[in-house]
Amino acid sequence: MTSHARVQAALSAVLDGEASARVERFVRRHLATCAACRAVADADAAIDARARRLVPSGTAPWLDDLQHRIAQEPRPGRARRARLRRLVPVLVAAVTLAAVLAPAVWVRMRQQERVQPVGPAVTTTVRPMGSASAAIAAARAYEVALYDGSPDPWMMLTPAARADWGGRRRFTDSRMAADMAEGLASRADPRIPARAVPLPTAPGHWLVVFSGTVMSEGIPYREAFVVGVDLTPGRGGIMDTDRRAAPLAPDDDSTLAGNRLSAALPKDAGPVRAWIVVDDGPPIPATVGGGAITLVPDPPLERGEHTWAVVAAFPDGVLTADATIQRVP
Amino acid sequence: MDETTEIARAKAGDRQAFARLVTRYQARVRGLARTLLGDAALAEDVAQEVFLAAWRALPTYRGQGSLASWLLTIARRKAIDLGRGRGLDDPLDETIPAAVGSATDQLVDIELRRALELLDDRRREAFVLVVVGGLAYGEAARALGCRSGTVASRVARARADLRELLKERVT
B86 in contact with A at a CB cutoff of 8 Å? Predict the structure, then answer.
């Protein structure tokens, strides 16, 4: 990838304060000497500034009305508890009905299990999911450590890498702190098992940190954080995996057409090695070429919902993983 | 008083504490609703409904994500629900928010809102949540139900689209 393309690809994250210190420094250095990229950066910054102007200034005209309406409302929680109390008889009826209907539903489901092979062209629905399957697949493919619970990433950095991050934690920003706090709070949740695993010490190994279930607003999400760590003496450090996950974003670039699983790749990605994992099976080496990672499963996928994950190893040592669920009708 | 205390008080039924939170976040919620809907009056209705819904749902807010993220998630859902009836051919409301600049600035703002309307819905939502709403990629990802890498990709593409659409206007 040329410097211009790399800079312009990273620019958006830099403007949003989401790029790593290393990437930000690289972009800013380039902008200092490149008028073309600086024009793009200036245009983006101007658009952002204009967009922020669309936020109305002054006080909302409905504040008094809202206060009046809230004054009529019960205190938070009371209305909810009242609604729940009203729901109890409905729930009892629903459970009773479900118990009565369960045998018939089970028989019907068993009948539907006899699935047909996929047709030549199918429409798909895509919804993103946490890349737990992909992380596990990556761990298998690379024979790396699989963590249940996240070690402190800062402690895994080498002194050189810490210096590269400005010698301080990046998590002082309030938004990052909120994210970290959420993660830490979720690990304190008794419903989420945590298991400490010692760090691997052999040089040149990848590490996949798998966080398990994360709670967000009371809803458990299965999530995995894939962190590549190169422990080679002298050049170890955390690899920037998340940034490279973008080209594999499932709902933008991944498709399931016919019996062909495909994830888009940047044209200049270089010699990428890739695996595709279907339904938590073993990682199967995928074909890389024509700007895509492709796999034609054999035997063909059957009708129903399939989870598939792409694991790609880029030539600069970046490991990325992404997963999606797609339905074969 | 810090925000955590304000939230705890509001959850306990302190309407004044909640009013202070409303004051703090009303501009962002109104801005998000307005940018997503392109209709000032409808956006104000949505914003008020967001805070009423937030008051009712406060017990479910566990403080794991930021309050801004929670409110903007509600705002996005409400904007989608209430904006569904608005036809694509409805004229864009060209009322400029208070504190406007020069006539040229106003024109550029109208151009920007027109350009935002032309964006792919998913890219527009990601751009608005991050740039207008000020959410981090992770927070926007939770609001949109996708990965933060996807948010990054959508915001970058939205910027590229806007740059192209506003080529002559924004320099």
Answer: no
